[in-house]
Amino acid sequence: MNRISSQQVFSGGINRLQDLNTTLNKTQQQISTGKKVNQPSDDPVAAARILKLDQEVKRIETYQRNADLADNRLQQEESALSSSVDIIQRIRELTVQAGNGALSVNDRQSISAELRERIDQLADVTNTQDASGEYIFSGFQGHQPAFVKEADGTWSYNGDEGQRVLEIDDGVTVPISDPGKGIFVDVPRAITVKDFVPGTAGVTDGYISDLSLDNAQSLRTAFEPRVPDDLTVSVVNPSGELKITANAGALDLTPAPPPTVGQAFEVAGVSMTVKGASDGDTFTIGVNDKQSVFASIENLIAGMDSIDKTTPKGQAAYDSLIAESLANLDNAQESITLKQTELGGRMNAVESTKGFLEDSAVYSKDIRSQLEDVDYAEAISNLSFQSFVLQAAQQSFAQVSRLSLFDRL
What we know:
- There is one protein chain.
- The protein has 409 residues and is α+β, with helices and mostly antiparallel strands.
- It folds into two domains: 35-184 and 290-373, CATH 1.20.1330.10; 192-289, no CATH class.
- The chain is 54% helix and 14% strand.
- The strands form four sheets. A five-stranded antiparallel sheet has the order 5-12-7-8-9, with no helix packed on it. Strands 6-11-10 form a three-stranded antiparallel sheet. A two-stranded antiparallel sheet has the order 1-2.
- Strand 8 (242-246) and strand 9 (251-252) form a beta hairpin.
- The mean pLDDT is 84.
């Protein structure tokens, strides 16, 4: 016959009450915190998954901050480039006005004065700073302005060619800056007369007029695989016969029959007329040069202020200045537009990545919520039931604890 001692009755009753109280406290904690897993022992498997999901959410949030930063930087750069295009377009309009032969000297001076204001305005835009104070077009030299004004009044590039990138997802990086050198400095320059060396007489009124590139494809084809930097046009005899060479004289491009002074001709897609030149005169024509948009505007201003249009040579020089300036400004706008197109592609990539990250964050948080968040209706129902069970157990224990054999005597 098994005997149950009073100690066993009390010990068993107290343990039961402690278990019920622990369960009740756990339910109360779930309701107060809103989480059904408050410590690993509550559900070791779920706790491990929740920890991994927490890490995943933090990873996603980090990349979301990077994506937002990239988007802001790219939008700021795109805005600066748009402003640059607007300024250059206004300069182009002024250049067209300057080409009007009916303008007076005062009119030209007024245009020149506005051009000086516009070039300073362009410099301000190219020296745009981001929220942290860094210059967005300075490459890795973000602490210093991209363009600085030299002692002679000209603008020069002060940054480097570095390009900053930012990781916006695992293995996904996007450039968030562009050095100003590739946008505003390395701009293809219009074909122009770079140098003139007089012949044996030492004095000449020679010049080239109506210089233009009529066929870019012909130019490239003539110099495959690479367009040279210069063309050389020389007067080779007293009769004014011309010889055209390239690649330091190694490539003879002279048409047959050879053109002469005063005769319009075309070579490798480049048309021109040599005027007033004599035997031995040599012209060097740049066909593959680059020039900053600032230098193009500065040359335009200098030419407008200095060229004397009262002579045929001066008029030809002025006409060439206007034509070259318009071509240079068009090239500058094209350089900026190409960069805007590239920026658009980057911004689309960032936007797509932001959408993917947002979807990933929602999915991860939803799974975490299913594992971690408490069902209040169920928890409150459990709490009510557990409170009832605990109360019943307490009453039962109170009755049992008062039992004694003496009560049966």
